[in-house]
Amino acid sequence: MLQENSLTITDVKAAYNRLLGISQQTPVLTSRTVNELTHSEVFFKCENFQRAGAFKFRGAYNALTQLSQAQKQQGVITFSSGNHAQAIALAGKLLNIPTTIVMPDDAPAVKQTATRGYGAEVILYNRHNTNREELTQSLARDRNLKLIPPYDHPQIVAGQGTAALELIQEVGELDFLLVPCGGGGLLSGCAIATKALSPKCRVIGVEPELADDATRSFYSKTLQTVHNPNTIADGARTPSLGKITFPIILNYVDDMVTVSESAIIRTMFFLWERLKIVVEPTGVLAAAALLEGIVTVPVARIGIILSGGNVDLTEIYNLKQ
Ligand SMILES: *Cc1c(COP(=O)(O)O)cnc(C)c1O
């Protein structure tokens, strides 16, 4: 059994080998404009080009491959505001494992449609009056399904860490790595990989100002929560870090910062116009921290994880009006 407190680069490398030929080795983009603006060398790891549109496929596939034969036959269940749902649904389809997804009824339409498109059963709930974890646990018991949570799971963390592993493998050691943070699966996995492969690199987590629980937890060293934050970054609306991710973040992450809603929107448009790529609000958190000058890192080699690209463009269009 993989113990969360003993997660290391070995687990990230094992996940990398399981994902070889299955997940996308996503492109790393650079931009002269960005390098000039920041007086640095910036490498964007484009997980918006990952299968199912976000890095979540890495953890989901890694976790599903590790189930027992009996669990694979019974199927899995999860709760998610979207990208983990699609990732589990796709991984289940590839591995022939039935999937059930519990999703808020206000999750972006593209995400609901895509999840059903991969063959998952979708169960919607109202996030203002339902505890999604309790609902999911009772469904798991009743239907004998294995619960695969979106971030607080050792194989999910190890899988997400392959994004940083690939980036450092491709471009070499970094001075800084900026990573979006919701429940902290991506950040903790990337921090484990980075501290092993580029030990001098400072790892910085970025979350929305309106959902700053991880930043407060990091500074107070006690788990802080946030309730239904009204941020456009729907992948970071998680109530808190997890039992597994919080200690890893305290151990390996160097700093946590927050970005405003308007910074998130400006950065989406900047990446769209300058890099010609579509990145969802949660996906631009790390880029926003750099481009808006919240993290200042002159003359450095900086990695930025662009974590996903599943955006409801009609919603963004309405924002601009
Ligand atoms: C889930 C998600 C995040 C946050 O990941 P955590 O592992 O929960 O911290 C960031 N960006 C995107 C696009 C996501 O889907």
TrEMBL record:
CDD domains: Thr-dehyd (cd01562). InterPro entries: TrpB-like_PALP (IPR001926), TrpB-like_PALP_sf (IPR036052). Residues 24-307 form the Tryptophan synthase beta chain-like PALP domain. The keyword NAD does not apply. Its cofactor is pyridoxal 5'-phosphate. It comes from the Bacteria. GO terms for molecular function: threo-3-hydroxyaspartate ammonia-lyase activity. Its EC number is 4.3.1.16. Keywords: Lyase, Pyridoxal phosphate. It is an enzyme of class 4 (lyase). The keyword Lyase applies. This is Threo-3-hydroxy-L-aspartate ammonia-lyase.
